[in-house]
Structures are given as structure tokens and as C-alpha cells.
Amino acid sequence: MPTPVVAPSLLAANHGEFIAGIRTIEEAGLTWVHLDIMDGHFVPNISFGPQVVAALRPLTKLHFDVHLMLTHPDRFVAAFAQAGAERLTVHIEAEHDMGQTLAAIKAAGLKAGIAMNPDGDPRRLLPYLDAVDLVLCMTVFPGFGGQAFIPAVLDSIRFLAAERRARGLDFRLEVDGGVNTETGLRCREAGADTLVAGTAFFKAPDRKAFVAGLTA
Ligand code: DX5
Ligand code: ZN
Questions:
Q1: pLDDT tens-digit profile of 51-109?
Q2: Looking at ligand 1, which atom is closest to the CA of residue 142?
Q3: Which of 47, 100, 113, 209 is buried deepest, with most CB atoms within 10 A?
């Protein structure tokens, strides 16, 4: 299996000290950070917005993998592009024209991702697979860190990995929610190559060892 990209979610870091969270990720030898943006409407929680992303941008070279849990993600593409996001992922369940939003993300010069909740039918993503750089399969219902991994999503991951292979596409296949060394391995076996980990990463007593376990 290829070595996966590990993208720790800053949601699980101390929100009063995001820069310390960024340094923790860098010190673990990683190159991506996952930024969870929540509007209190699409999901029942609020996190942080483009100003925080913009403030962090000059302080690190980490790749900003931004996950928009917003009812109207199309209205915020420009703001997150300006803030220094490199990758913007939007939900199939949100209220927007998916084709147009993906085109807007790409026109802004960013990588575009499409996300689906754990109860989603992966066949809904088929029309967009040619147009995306990443597919995010949520392995918990979005809104909060620290929830238990939902194994039924493994079938969706296998389905999307098979479709990627059959069509010769090269989008990244990302999982997010309840990812630890055990569930991360199951996701990789199903075809995932990009692992978001919040709680398991930040709570790990030895983060380098945790990453080594996740990528072994
Ligand atoms: C869920 C977020 C996730 C979350 C993952 O709403 O999209 O990125 O922070 O956290 P853990 O790894 O704690 O499940
Ligand atoms: Zn996320």
C-alpha cells in the first residue's frame, strides 16, 4: 500500500494556541494540516473562519487542506482562496451548484475536493469525479471531533477506489473522523490514501510514533 498523507485536524488542538498546534504537526514531520470550517448551520457547531486561516498562513509552509462544513460554501470560495487555502473541499449535501462551486475553486487556483457524509450514496459523486482533486469520505457525522469511526463507510471507500482505478483518475481519497492506527489501516486497505486525524493525533503521547503506526 502506498504511504498515506496524514493531515491532522486543528479542530482537536487548543483553540487559544493554534500556532502551537501547527508547530506540533510540523515537529511530527508532517506536511499537511486539515482545517475544519463550521458554520453552526450545516453542522451543529462553529469553529473558525477565513481570518484565522489568513493569520496562520504566513507562519507555516504546511499545506492547508480546508474542509468547508457550510450550508453555502460557494459564498466563501474567494475568502478562503485569499486567506491562503490550497485545497477546498465542499459537501455534496450543502445548498449550492456543485459543478459551479468546483469550477470556482479551480478558477481561484486551488485544488478542489468533494465531501460526503457517512450515510451518503457514493454514486451521487460519480458525475464529479473527473473534476475533483480529492474525495472526502466522512467516517463520522461532521460537527465534532472525538466521535467513533463508522465502518459502513468502508464500502463507499472501496466503491470510489474501484471507480478511480477503472477510470484512470488520480484524485486523493481522504477519510475524516475517528481515524486512529486501527481504523486508519482499514481505510487504507479499502483504498484511502489521505488520513485526517484530530483527537488521535493531538492526544497521542508520542506523535511521531503515532504517525509511524498510521503510515506503516
Ligand atoms: C468532523 C471534522 C473532523 C474531525 C475529526 O466534524 O470534519 O475533521 O475534527 O476529528 P477526530 O479525528 O477527532 O474524529
Ligand atoms: Zn474535516
A1: 999 999 999 999 999 999 999 999 999 999 999 999 999 999 999 999 999 999 999 99
A2: 6
A3: 113
